[in-house]
Design brief:
GO cellular component, one term: endoplasmic reticulum membrane
Structural class: alpha/beta
Largest sheet: 5 strands, mixed
Distance between the termini: 22 Å
Keywords: Membrane, Transmembrane, Transmembrane helix
Pfam families: PIGO_PIGG
Number of helices: 27
Strand content: 5-15%
Radius of gyration: 33 Å
GO molecular function: CP2 mannose-ethanolamine phosphotransferase activity
Organism: Saimiri boliviensis boliviensis (Bolivian squirrel monkey)
Length: 786
């Protein structure tokens, strides 16, 4: 079976979208949360249990403290406070711990990271509480986020005049969970425990209170956790914590009845101590069950999605030699009996694995919940991909490739630009494994784009001042004619892998361009570099430098907003109208499809101008300026091939994604774009407008790539090569990232840093699939017309 490279790439990306969707559904677990609504206010607290006697305590206990002050220190390890280091570096804290005016704990940080609850201040004649804690620790080298003891163990010290111990009563810090802080502070301030909290009360805080109050505090906490367990675990009745809770509640009721009858007796004291221990055991077990539920992943669905995505990536990488040849076609032979046998054998194996996993799974699984038709379709798809991979690999290993007549031809060597593209792609992929690089990914793309400009500058100077002594190659070259510069396709030896763009017999750039055009070519990389530097300061994004002032803030002042909108929209309309008239009247040999592509591109530009906030309109203007400079003074004179031009478009598209002010944080999505021109919220238009407004940079550069290759090249395979390269360069980071987040699923910052990036990658892949379909449609139109 023979497929065009563009069609093949579009199908691969569409399948990859399916794999990512299955992976995302398994990666994000069902949240452990209470289904009780808040429309009618907070629920009344659970009454005190009783056995035969009626209790009059049906309200929340009074607060223990009037005010809570939280001192949160970043990356504070437990040994920085306790032990010899604490005596040296935090002497006053050590004094308070030894004096007995505090309770000390070692709080373990587990994913997801803990967000401190909002505390309401109360002005009462009660003591205050000072909470000294750390959000996470750090290793000896200063890193954090992993699961080593130094990184997850943090100090938690509660300091108050209400805590008094006898002199010499030194207690070693006990190990607790950071999730216990929310429940403890709620009880300390006389507030209801958050319904979604999975933590338990730190008992030393209330151990100085009367027995009845202690049991009341513990009962409220266990009731809250048991309700949360009932709403999130179907077999909650068999949970050991729930059984302990029921036992504790019965004993508590007996204690209340005995307490109301006689308030002072040894039997009452012994029974109260027993109920206390029973409640503490129940709290520990319930909290552990719920915490395990929070961090439970659907590994089977994740593995299925990962296998599909990795199969697609492997297939794309193995298909590079065939896809980037002159014909841009791939030969996939699946008709042999061996491949048919392999296909059915893999289906049987996958079906058996599916039955085993789904019948033995203790928790719910999304992929197991699908109908057999849907699950079978995915297994058939995975089997077919594996057979195609084996087929392509067999052709590469067995069939081999014919020897070149000129093996030392310069076209077989890697240029500096090729090495930059390879190293930049690999470096970006490797950077996705670190949380700090994910948070500051825009810096990676800024660095790559700036380095690309320097590499283009070096290539330009070498071409103009040192000459071009390379051997004849294939690619784009510039010819001077009656209508100015026009691109022509020149074939040459060694053109079956990459369309090297040097041109056989074509004049060098220094001979084609003279005067002001020559100096514009030499200055263009530096002008693009200056534009990128200005755009970096327009929107400060990320985490580390987000506090710095934006140049965009200066533009959002009253009437200046409207003036910028009018000026840029009118300018874009004038430019588009002028070029459309020129393409129809002056250059009458341009095809209708080229004009239509320009209209589509102009329409996308106008839509972006409408959706962008006023201070982001310079981003659009600089994007158009850089595209014009690259087209006229970089890609044409230097005769880059379609693969290199595609990668450059992809890099600039990613850089402009961050120039808009986006980041890998969901909070930076500008949802106001989804309401432009709408009176009320309408789901489909709002989703489309928000997605386009967010990914306007990559989409505009992708549409410009289609227009450029369609109008500036005479190659019948340029669009196919571009589609294949675009699909592959997007698939590499996505495939690598899902493997990384699977291995880092217990990372401390998995939800705050890595998960939002995963959603962005999934959405980017979906947009890439749409771009590849557009590429393929344009390529089919070109082939039909040819």
């Amino acid at each position: 079976m023979r497929l065009g490279a563009g069609t093949f790439a579009a199908c691969c990306v569409a399948i990859e979208v399916l794999g990512i969707a299955v992976f995302l559904r398994g990666f994000f677990p069902a949240p452990v949360r209470s289904s009780a609504g808040t429309e009618h206010g907070a629920e009344p607290p659970a009454p005190e249990p009783s056995a035969g006697a009626s209790s009059n305590w049906t309200t929340l206990p009074p607060p223990l403290f009037s005010k809570v002050v939280i001192v949160l220190i970043d990356a504070l390890r437990d040994d920085f406070v306790f032990g010899s280091k604490g005596v040296k570096f935090m002497p006053y804290t050590t004094y308070l711990v030894e004096k007995g005016a505090s309770h000390s704990f070692v709080a373990e940080a587990k994913p997801p990271t803990v967000t401190m609850p909002r505390i309401k201040e109360r002005d009462m004649a009660l003591p205050n509480l000072l909470v000294l804690c750390g959000d996470h620790g750090m290793s000896e080298t200063g890193s954090h986020g992993a699961s080593s003891m130094e990184e997850v163990n943090t100090p938690l010290i509660l300091i108050s005049s209400a805590f008094e111990r006898k002199p010499g009563d030194i207690r070693h810090p006990t190990r607790v969970q950071q999730t216990d802080v929310a429940a403890t502070l709620a009880i300390a301030l006389g507030l209801p425990i958050p319904k979604d909290s999975v933590g338990s009360l730190l008992f030393p805080v209330v151990e100085g209170k009367p027995m009845r109050e202690q049991l009341r505090f513990l009962h409220l906490n266990t009731v809250q956790l048991s309700k949360l367990l009932q709403e999130n675990v179907p077999s909650y009745e068999k949970d050991p914590g729930f059984e302990q809770f029921k036992m504790s509640e019965r004993l508590h009721g007996n204690w209340i009845r005995l307490y109301l009858e006689e308030k002072h007796s040894e039997v009452l004291l012994n029974l109260g101590s027993k109920v206390l221990r029973q409640y503490l055991d129940a709290l520990k077990t319930l909290s552990l069950s719920l915490s395990t539920q929070v961090a439970q992943y659907d590994m089977y669905s994740m593995m299925v999605g990962t296998v599909v995505v990795l199969e697609v990536l492997t297939l794309l990488l193995l298909s590079v030699p065939q896809a980037l040849r002159r014909k841009a076609e791939l030969e996939v032979s699946l008709s042999s009996p061996g491949f048919s046998l392999l296909f059915y054998l893999v289906i049987l194996v996958l079906s058996a694995v599916h039955v085993i996993v789904c019948t033995s799974a203790e928790s719910s699984c999304y992929f197991c919940g699908l109908s057999w038709l849907a699950a079978g379709g995915v297994m058939v798809l995975a089997s077919a991909l594996l057979c195609v991979i084996v087929s392509v690999l067999t052709n590469v290993l067995v069939g081999g490739r014919p020897q070149r007549k000129n093996p030392i031809h310069p076209s077989s060597r890697w240029s500096e630009l090729d090495l930059l593209i390879l190293l930049g792609t690999v470096g970006h992929v490797l950077s996705l494994g670190a949380s700090s690089f994910v948070e500051e990914e825009h810096q990676t793309w800024y660095f790559l784009v700036n380095t690309l400009c320097l590499a283009l500058s070096q290539e330009t100077y070498r071409s103009y001042f040192l000459g071009d002594d390379s051997e004849p190659q294939c690619g784009l070259h510039v010819e001077q004619g009656l209508n100015g510069m026009a691109a022509a396709w020149q074939g040459g030896p060694g053109c079956d892998v990459l369309e090297r763009g040097k041109g056989h017999g074509s004049p060098s750039p220094s001979e084609v361009l003279q005067g002001s055009e020559k100096w514009m070519v030499l200055a263009s990389p530096w002008l693009i570099l200056a534009c990128c530097r200005l755009l970096r300061s327009l929107n400060q994004t990320g985490v580390q430098w987000a506090h710095r002032p934006d140049l965009g803030h200066w533009l959002t002042r009253g009437i200046i907003e409207a003036r910028f909108v009018y000026v840029f929209v009118l300018g874009i309309l004038f430019t588009g109208t002028k070029d459309l008239l020129k393409s129809q009247v002056v250059a009458a040999d341009f095809k209708i499809k080229t004009v239509g592509l320009w209209e589509i591109y102009s329409g996308l530009v106008l839509l972006a101008a409408l959706l962008f906030r006023p201070h982001n309109l310079p981003v659009l203007a600089f994007s158009l300026l850089i595209q014009t400079l690259m087209t006229k003074f970089i890609w044409k004179p230097l005769r880059h091939d379609a693969a290199e031009i595609t990668v450059m478009h992809y890099w600039f598209g990613q850089a402009f994604f961050y120039f808009q002010g986006n980041s890998n944080n969901i909070a930076t999505v500008d949802i106001s774009a989804g309401f432009v021109g709408l009176d009320t919220y309408v789901e489909i238009p709002a989703v489309f407008l928000t997605a386009f407004g967010t990914y306007a940079g990559p989409l505009l550069w992708a549409s410009h790539l289609v227009h450029f290759l369609s109008s500036e090249t005479h190659s019948s395979s340029a669009l196919s090569h571009a589609c294949f390269c675009y699909a592959m360069i997007c698939s590499i980071p996505v495939s690598t990232y899902i493997v990384l987040v699977t291995s880092l699923r217990y990372h401390l910052f998995i939800w705050s840093v890595f998960s939002p990036k995963l959603l962005y990658e999934g959405m980017h892949l979906l947009i890439t699939a749409a771009v590849c379909v557009f590429f393929t449609a344009m390529d089919q139109t070109r082939l039909t017309q040819a």
